[in-house]
Write a structure and sequence with these properties.
The chain is mostly beta strands. The chain has 1 helix and 49 strands. The chain is 4% helix and 44% strand. A hairpin with a 4-residue loop joins strand 46 and strand 47. The termini are far apart.
Length: 652
């Protein structure tokens, strides 16, 4: 039954807290109100706070399995305008990295108001050691289904079974086989199957896991026989006002902000059709005592004075009279003298430091080409009024454009918030300074062939400076197109300057000869603020020219030169025969080789592609091939297929 008393203690503590607020402040003027500095909610995911969260309790523990390396800490202040820091960082939600298995990580959550008051909540997160693993790997009950779904870091579960189910089998599986597990009912050992109490009652089953090092963890399963353990709300609404989070049955704490002139709200809680019961309690009604409320009933709740918080507790008790959930509504009524902003933004630009209601002075740096900005301010109390640079404006509405000074000068934007009770206004100041940009990067770099849009640079990054581009041997030039990240920078492409105010530049470069040295290209970008340029380089490598392909056909002995037994047997007595070779392409010259040696004195007839020898061949066999040469590059092809010719001058 331990968890029942924890839930009730939360409820009583919340009621007592608001009662103390009433006795301390009564109906005094709101200017003297000093609400308690505390959290409205605190959750660690994954994990179960021990004890359960209560705004007046500041020390907690959480036991986690050794495989959990990070947790998410979420904390909401009870009073609007109070700030929350989690381990020194101003935020209401933060991911915390845990120490090694077996270590304890301390998390400090500090809630503070504009004055000197603050409160620190400390959570000690114990990550099990490998020898201190006291967690279950899985847990099941048969018959029945655990609610919620099993998680090694969640310790409390419920199971509903039918009236005629007299026993269940509980199956716990250890994460560490060397650990031990025992199960008890009402403090007594519980052999399997575990016998349940009579129909219409509950049975509390404790599963204690003891690690190798002796540390214990207790899981609790509440089995309801023939009765429901559902203590959820299906929905909860409040009017006027909006819950700070979308309603979820598993989320127990909500904050609602209302204007100072709202003195009452209407709360409507609804059950999901289960036979649960509800009570509602609030310090302003019935001396804070809980009263029954029906599902779907709209209950009017008077609020405390402006500037105070009203805690509304809705306690849902399941049919089994054991399972309970306490939903808390923290209603924050704006003070009459609330002259705070709840949000402040400027466009373009970002506030430094980040906005908080209690910080009044901010700076913003913008580029020198920004001539105007707009400011949007949101009132914390919509009954207050405000001006921006002396002009009245509405909450959460962008101002008219505000002109800025010249580069290097500063422009102050003054936002004055006047509370409903007309106390002295609160002044927020934004100092906007156009500053010279230090951006000396490119946002894009392209190298293209003339007449083509294909970018030969495929891996561009603003932070990468050197590049290499390969082109074919017949490419005589390339075009470089560079785009600045900041149009106010100055760019030099080769020797051509592209001044501030131009977004991009383009220049065509001739390339070194094919197969020669790479052609180096450079793009220098100098920031508006000056300083050394960023130099991007492109080495364009022009491929060496290739030799022409070898002739496809072997040379052929002309019929007139073939005087053997036939004019196709390649046997001849003519020692200076004629050979026909493949016709060379345009820009090529043919040559004839005999026995691997180029014939220097043969006459070539380009019309018939015929070579006529002038130096006689000796008797015997000779190998005849041809080649072609690129006239421009003087590169020569390989040999054509060979022809074998037999010279015989001796009569048969």
């Amino acid at each position: 039954m331990k968890h029942i008393f924890i839930t009730i203690s939360q409820y009583l503590a919340a009621t007592l807290l608001v009662a103390l607020c009433l006795s301390a402040f009564g109906c005094a003027d709101s200017a003297s109100v000093n609400p308690v500095v505390e959290l409205a909610s605190l959750t660690i995911t994954p994990g179960t706070l021990q004890p359960a969260f209560n705004s007046t309790i500041t020390q907690y523990n959480i036991d986690l399995t050794s495989d959990i390396a990070t947790v998410t800490v979420t904390a909401q202040p009870a009073v609007a305008g109070d700030t929350v820091t989690i381990n020194g960082q101003a935020t209401t939600s933060r991911t915390i990295s845990l120490g090694q298995p077996g270590s304890t990580t301390s998390v400090n959550i500090v809630v503070s108001e504009s004055g000197s008051n603050s409160r620190t909540y400390t959570v000690l997160i114990n990550r099990a050691s490998l020898a201190g693993n006291n967690s279950l790997q899985s847990l099941s009950v048969s018959p029945g289904t655990l609610a919620p779904t099993f998680d090694a870091n969640l310790l409390s579960y419920t199971v509903d079974v039918a009236n005629n189910v007299g026993s269940v089998i509980v199956t716990p599986t250890l994460q560490d086989p060397a650990a031990t597990v025992t199960m008890t009912v009402n403090g007594q050992p519980a052999p399997q199957p575990i016998q349940l109490n009579g129909a219409g009652s509950v049975t509390l089953i404790s599963i204690v896991v003891t690690a190798q090092n002796g540390t214990e963890k207790t899981y609790l399963v509440t089995v309801s026989r023939g009765i429901s353990s559902n203590a959820n709300l299906q929905s909860m609404t409040i009017a006027p006002g909006t819950l700070n989070l979308p309603f979820s049955a598993g989320t127990l704490s909500y904050t609602v902000k209302v204007a100072s002139n709202v003195d009452r709200v209407v709360v409507t809680p609804t059950l999901p059709g289960t036979p649960a019961s509800m009570t509602i309690s609030v310090d302003t009604v019935n001396n804070g005592q809980p009263t029954a409320i029906n599902s779907g009933e709209a209950r009017t709740i008077p609020l405390l004075n402006p500037g105070l918080i009203t805690l509304i507790n809705i306690l849902v008790t399941a049919e089994n009279q054991v399972s309970q959930k306490n939903y808390v509504l923290v209603v924050i009524r704006a003070a009459l003298g609330d002259n705070n902003l709840s949000a402040l933004t400027i466009s373009p630009g970002s506030l430094s430091p980040s906005f908080t209601p209690n910080t009044t002075d901010y700076t913003v740096d913008v580029a020198t080409d920004i001539a105007t900005v707009t400011v949007k301010a949101t009132l914390q109390d919509t009954n207050a009024t405000m001006t921006i640079n002396g002009q009245g404006t509405s909450s959460d509405v962008p101002s008219a454009p505000i002109n800025l000074g010249t580069p290097g000068s500063s422009t102050d934007i003054i936002i004055e918030v006047i509370a409903l009770n007309a106390v002295a206004p609160k002044t927020y100041t934004i100092t906007v300074t156009p500053v010279l940009s230090g951006n000396n990067s490119l946002s894009n770099l392209e190298v293209t062939l003339v007449g083509s849009s294909l970018n030969l640079i495929t891996n561009f990054s603003p932070n990468q400076l050197p590049y290499t581009v390969n082109v074919a041997s017949d490419v005589p030039s390339v075009t470089v197109t560079a785009t600045k990240s900041d149009p106010n920078a100055t760019m030099l492409i080769g020797s051509e300057t592209f001044p501030a105010g131009t977004e991009w530049g383009e220049k065509t470069f001739p390339l070194n000869g094919a197969g020669g040295l790479p052609t180096p290209l450079s793009i220098d970008v100098t920031a508006q603020s000056g300083g050394a340029p960023n130099t991007y380089t492109v080495n364009v490598i022009r491929a060496a020219p290739a030799a022409p392909p070898a002739p496809a056909d072997a040379p052929n002995l002309t019929a007139a030169s073939d005087d053997g037994s036939s004019n196709t047997d390649n046997i001849t007595s003519i020692t200076t025969p004629d050979f026909i070779v493949s016709n060379p392409a345009a820009g090529e010259a043919a040559s004839l080789y005999i026995d691997g040696i180029r014939v220097q004195d043969a006459a070539f007839n380009s019309t018939t592609s015929t070579f006529t020898l002038t130096t006689p061949l000796t008797d015997g066999n000779h190998t005849i091939t041809s080649r072609v040469t690129n006239i421009a590059t003087t590169l020569e092809s390989l040999d054509s297929p060979a022809l074998t010719v037999t010279i015989t001058t001796t009569p048969p």
